[in-house]
Amino acid sequence: MSGTVKAALIYPPLTDPTSGYHSLNYLDSYARAQGHRPAEIIDANIEAFHHSYTPSAYDWLRRELSRLSIDDLSGTDALMAQANQLGLPDPDPERLRRSIGVLQDPTLFYDYRHYQDAVEGVISWMDALGTVGFPGQFHAGFRLHPPPMISIGSVAALTDETLLARLNRPFLPYYEDVLIPRLAAGGHQVIGISATYQWQLPFALWIARLVRRACPDVFLIAGGTEISDVWKCASKPEYVFQVLADFDAIVVGEGESAYTEILDAVAAGTLPAGHPNVRLHPKYGRQRQLPLRYERLAQVPVPDFSGLPWDLYLSPERFVYYSPTRGCYWNKCTFCDYGLNTDGPTSPWRQDTVSTMIADVTELSKFAKFIYFSVDVLAPATILRFAEQVVERGLDFRWGAEIRLEKYWSDERCELLRRSGCVAISVGFESGNQRILDLIDKGTKPEQVRRTMTAMTKANIGVQMMGFTGFPTETREEALDSVTFLRDNPDLWTLGGLGDFMLTPGAIVAKEPDRFGITNVRPVEGSDIVRMLKYDEPVTEAAQAEVAQAKAGLNPGHYHRPWLGSTDTPHTFFYHDRYGTAVRGVLANDRVRHDTDDQTEFLANGAFVDRDDEQVWEAYRRIRSDEQEGVPGDLPADRHLFRRVDGQVFALNRSSRLFLDLFHAPLTLAEAQRRLWIVEPTVADRVWRTFIGQRLIRRHRLPAEPVR
């Protein structure tokens, strides 16, 4: 091997800005161990964000907003765009800079009032930035809310240049001024783009198109979980390279050895046709399809994260991902369909030795305080031996992982985990009903889960719960068992909650529908990349609305991913490390009315949505109804819609608006009560508690910043 191939690896928008992802570092570290030169790793997600508020990009944004037009849209698309423009904020780069400063500050970050204000500042900026694409396309800051045809996986939409250009328009200055000139001048022979999540795909496709124009001779490759899903879920084989037309090759499944063989082939001037995980573009002719290869973990070195732009991430600490196992040792759950699985719910189970894990984390902990085990699950005995050696060697770092709530976890063993640096674990408890757990083939019992949660909590390890309702044939009462389980044990879990069951094509449920009482299994209409299936099952459908209402409010977190309050985010682990299992109380403290608040100034934390055009307002109401955490359609038509700064929409009655309008300017609760002297104090107090609890008003003056 010559080791002379110059490569660039790109991680595209739109994804978590709080830490670097590990996929590219694993590829690069493996290739370097085989004698190849280091690749240039580009986190385009975080770079594009920071470029968006530079003076030149901000000037561009203001010009674009001043002449914003949706004349090229028609019908429903135009109405939805008009509706999503309602209530969107003006971009404020100064507030954004303050917000970034708080999120990167090792003191202010842990003051939840400062944290909330900072997150809402970032979300507000992203809302304004997204307006130049499809208004409303960014949700919760870094989640894409694309046109429906993109979200369902329509090949026509994913190959529509006009549509892709519009979705990518918010990042146009970054592409034109930074990324493409950098690549064009870089002299790269190989450029790879890795997409982990579905919402990165439209950006990866557009970047590939720009790269192909600027660097026509480069060997362009794509990989990552999302690229594998396109290959796995395409309803016709030809769809894969219709969508991924600009790439010379894609890597399906695990990519370390495949990427290295691509570098070897380019260095030798040949095509990388020998690796079973490499799929060449059809323009290179018909290729023999070999069984997929799964990596031997003993040959995968510890990843080197030093090439990532750590000063750019929106966090006060470094947080790295580490994968010492692949696949799942249980590998039986009937709903699961993860990775490049062939005959099981996940890919084959493999696990590094404990000695290798210790050697790896010893190196990683020199670089980062927080290490998250990014795995499907860790085996209990392995975790215990790992924790014992961490304590024996005196290693000082913090870690978390996803585990199964086995009865194995006694009080003593949980205490050992905590002493080894474990601050939080994530668990898929799935359901609080035994019949449903048996249908899922989970191998657990609710009472056993409760005992393990108790042991973890006693050790001050945060337990983040993940479950869902709506599994086929689940009755109303069985779904409410899950709600009751979490509601009756608030002191045993910190964050998480209950989602909704979704059927995917590779799940055992989809392969054996009769066994689970479902009929008429079918793709979503119009989808070509079939990630999700629809089906008929009257029992769960009948209970859906009532169960959704019961689930509303279970999660004590206030923000969607990637922010604090969501499961398995860097920010969540930072707060667990600082506050332990008391983190729920920290999040709740600013959402309650305190005795001292009579003399505290409050300010409206958002604005009411304009109702001048009834058709547009009604479209907005329906769009936002579908996005609520509670029952779909729960924004009544006769209410006033208030858009909180973070984009959440609330339907308020006329009397609530009279109260809330008082806080257009900073006002104390005592003065607000004086102005509403006709209202009983007890009634007014209930209103203040509701407004504060829902953060419709916020305390105007944040706690003083520390002296530096």
UniProtKB/TrEMBL annotation:
Cofactor(s), names only, from the UniProt record: [4Fe-4S] cluster
All copies of domain Radical SAM core, residue ranges: 314-558
Residue ranges constituting the B12-binding domain according to the UniProt record: 132-273
UniProt keyword Repeat present: no
GO CC, any one term: cytosol
Pfam families for the chain: Radical_SAM
Keywords: Iron, Iron-sulfur, Metal-binding, S-adenosyl-L-methionine
Matches recorded under Gene3D superfamilies: Cobalamin-binding domain, tm_1862 like domain
InterPro entries for this protein: BchE-like, Cobalamin-bd, Elp3/MiaA/NifB-like_rSAM, rSAM, rSAM_horseshoe, rSAM_sf
Record GO terms (molecular function): catalytic activity; cobalamin binding; iron-sulfur cluster binding; metal ion binding
Listed PANTHER family: ANAEROBIC MAGNESIUM-PROTOPORPHYRIN IX MONOMETHYL ESTER CYCLASE-RELATED, BLL1977 PROTEIN
Name the record gives this protein: Radical SAM protein
Organism annotation: Micromonospora inaquosa
